[in-house]
Predict the 3D structure of the following.
Amino acid sequence: GENVEQHPSTLSVQEGDSAVIKCTYSDSASNYFPWYKQELGKRPQLIIDIRSNVGEKKDQRIAVTLNKTAKHFSLHITETQPEDSAVYFCAAVKPGTYKYIFGTGTRLKVLA
Amino acid sequence: DTAVSQTPKYLVTQMGNDKSIKCEQNLGHDTMYWYKQDSKKFLKIMFSYNNKELIINETVPNRFSPKSPDKAHLNLHINSLELGDSAVYFCASSPPGQGSTGELFFGEGSRLTVL
């Protein structure tokens, strides 16, 4: 069935450094790839998304890249800050299914 | 104004009991979901309704029964609770007009603990 692999499961970086989280999806028909941030004890919230007709999207310190051929997409956070510490989830969605398949999550710790 | 609200936020109960979680959204969305987040933080789809019609029913034990009285409400009833049902249950909704590829708006979650 559909599957999304996410790596790494935990990531620690120094404040100001960059962080990269990678996901691989199995269903080549997937065309929507959102990223969610979940702070401790809170709900997941969308931080950025990308559709399959775009290779890269940027929003201030956050960027997402998509390689459809390899079925990879990645989240890049530059100039990390302590408030970036959270669990990040990638997801892949196939059109017409309403089924958001989430990756297993990455716990990011930004050390001050 | 809470966009997607769930009640109760916390639920502690004994094995074998039956419990319900309620969800309401005031965003005018057509599609609502139940997700289960276990202790390892995995987010797993359970059910989805579009305009009161069940469209996703994952391999969930039939002790779990969703019900959508109207498109703004989606409830989850769980019979004969087991220890493994302990988790945080998130309700979510997504906007109309974007097919199945729009932002998911999550509720605050309902933490269920089965003793």
